[in-house]
Amino acid sequence: MKARAVAAACCLAAVSVTAAATAQQPYTPTVGQPGKDVVWVPTPPELVQTMLDLARVTKDDYVIDLGSGDGRTIIAAARRGARGLGVEFNPEMVALSRRLAEAAHLSDRATFVQGDMFEADISKATVMAIYLLPANLEKLLPRFQALAPGTRIVSNTFGFEEWDPDARAAVEGGACSNWCEALLWIVPASAAGVWSLGGPDTLTLTQLHQVLYGSLRIGDRDTPLTNARMRGDHVTFSAGDRVYTGRLAGDTMTGTVTGGAGTAAWTATRR
Ligand SMILES: C[S@@+](CC[C@H](N)C(=O)[O-])C[C@H]1O[C@@H](n2cnc3c(N)ncnc32)[C@H](O)[C@@H]1O
């Protein structure tokens, strides 16, 4: 009995020595290691900065990275004063991200959760900063489109099949050899419809993502629109020699029109 107890104690001691040794080994991820829906390949640090620059991340932002890897993008955003959330499926990567945030004294602003990116609540993001495959992006597209107008989506290299970026930026200075381009989309407000400009005058708009098509009817004259687009809740279009700019809130657009007789205010109400 006594001999068995001694053997068990030795065995437990051996297990705890092994556990202690394992605990001391820092977890080191390997580039290309499998992930649930996409492998881990880290965004180069220079491109992280280019992405945050392109999205104009400030201290007022709440940045979410879906598939946050070692947390580098969220930690970099936190260094700019933003708050950020990384959602990562691999629990060891989550623990690593938390350790790195802690080491940078940024745990209060850079938080990480273990979870599936397709189930994460992203509704409060002002910026989505991501590095995912096109198939992942297409699956997430309806959720990105449902974000508040003006939310910026910035991606390492990959984009959407039918939604062109609003802007692109490449890492400058040759510091990057692979995956060197950042793409930016700004979630557009919904502008489609027939808008009344007062009296019989109307603006008719159809919309594909940030691009608008349509015409302006003043009196009995229809003028097709050119250069018509949304950038968040900002609207711009030209009709003949007049350039309209404005802001959309709900079913009202207000702004200024230049050209012709100078500059004037305009207002439109969705019918
Ligand atoms: C290409 S890496 C990008 C890492 C990081 N965003 C960056 O730019 O350095 C993709 C990450 O997504 C994670 N991932 C894969 N499928 C996921 C899922 N369904 N939910 C959350 N994370 C996932 C992987 O473990 C990996 O860390």
How does this model look, in words?
The chain has about 270 residues and is α+β, with helices and mostly antiparallel strands. The chain folds into two domains: about 140 residues, Rossmann fold; about 80 residues, Beta Barrel (Lipocalin). The protein is built from five helices and 15 strands. The chain has an eight-stranded antiparallel beta barrel. A seven-stranded mixed sheet has the order 3-2-1-4-5-7-6, covered by helices on one side. Helix 2 crosses helix 3. The longest helix is centred in the first third of the chain and has 23 residues. It is elongated, with a radius of gyration of 26 Å. It starts with a helix and ends with a strand. The N terminus is likely disordered.
Architecture blueprint of SSEs:
Blueprint (H helix, E strand, L loop, with lengths): L1 H23 L20 H10 L7 E5 L5 H8 L3 E6 L2 H13 L6 E5 L12 E4 L3 H12 L6 E5 L10 E4 L10 E6 L6 E4 L5 E7 L2 E8 L2 E11 L2 E6 L2 E8 L2 E7 L4 E8 L1
The structure holds S-adenosylmethionine.
As for the CATH topology of the largest domain, it is: Rossmann fold
Major β-sheet annotation: 8 strands, antiparallel, barrel
Tell me the CATH superfamily of the largest domain.
Answer: Vaccinia Virus protein VP39
Strand coverage percent: 25-35%
Q: What general form does the structure show?
A: elongated
